[in-house]
Automatic annotation (TrEMBL):
Belongs to the dus family. CDD domains: DUS_like_FMN. This is tRNA-dihydrouridine synthase. One of its GO terms (biological process) is mRNA processing. Residues 30-298 form the DUS-like FMN-binding domain. Gene3D superfamilies: Aldolase class I. It comes from Immersiella caudata.
Amino acid sequence: MTETMDSDHVHPLKLFELTKSEKRFLYTSAPMVRYSKLAFRQTVYEYGTDLCWTPMVLAKEFNRNNFARDSDFTISTCAPQPPTIVQFGANVPLELARASTLVAPYSSGVDLNCGCPQSWACAETLGAALMEKRELVREMVLETRSHLAAAGYSVAKEASISSPLGRSVSVKIRVHKDLRKTVDFITTVLGPEQDRHIDFLTIHPRTRHTPSSTPINIEALEVLTSMFGKKVPILVSGDVFTLSSLPYTSELLPSERPGLTELPGLAGLMSARAILANPALYAGYEACPWEAVDTFMNKVSLSLPPPNSHFGYSCSF
Ligand SMILES: Cc1cc2nc3c(=O)[nH]c(=O)nc-3n(C[C@H](O)[C@H](O)[C@H](O)COP(=O)(O)O)c2cc1C
């Protein structure tokens, strides 16, 4: 992790507000281990993505190891810096809070991964295993908010959106087979309506055991967005392949799609596999245009200067 840059961090809630006023969904690119790195984030940002996620970073290692910090989180010192959410894997409140404070100068917000289904993660009570630990998740987000506030950041949700020091704290979840458990989870983590614990929520409507080849659970998404969508902005992660083929409809989409479930409580979309194949997805391209590959290759070569190079770089990473 390098450089000191405290400027131009748009508050994610401001982006939600802006896109709502434009009568469209907020467009986001998902956290993807190995892939959603700087060059990729810069590329999708050029093609209409509003908010980008880093890959999941393990908070404990990030806090303790300089090499982990340098390899796991890279930002651009050249404008524009895409609005970026740093996602952490954590299971200890203090670890998440410390790691969040470390990245706060360089990001718009932090996110806790409660969805990774991989066995190594679940064995360590990370990722989807946290869906069984709602009190712990609530503690982690509360501790993070209080550390950020103590470090001078503004974490008052809507009241912070105009502050240059405004930062968000969010979680990304999967659903349970028994949806009542997901309702309990969200209720606990969200906290009181007048002073909620998270700025926004991302729902991946598959259980920890559902393969990604199985379509997302629209009924679960409908229940959860109608119960919680007025209390907290909600993003959906899963099966966002193109804007014209979403398996639900909304007034925030360019055209009405009769016969599909209407989701008035949904505020935005998060794409992973599709945006990886086509970074220009949100700009309306049905397939990856050559220019997007070109853009990506240019960003990669800038962000990976040859080792021990004596050339000067206008950007440092
Ligand atoms: C290569 C890859 C890496 C991923 N890494 C993460 C991650 O670091 N954190 C996370 O919360 N989800 C991760 N996911 C899950 C995605 O963010 C997303 O929730 C899931 O793929 C469903 O979205 P999709 O149907 O658009 O692919 C990853 C998915 C893929 C394909």
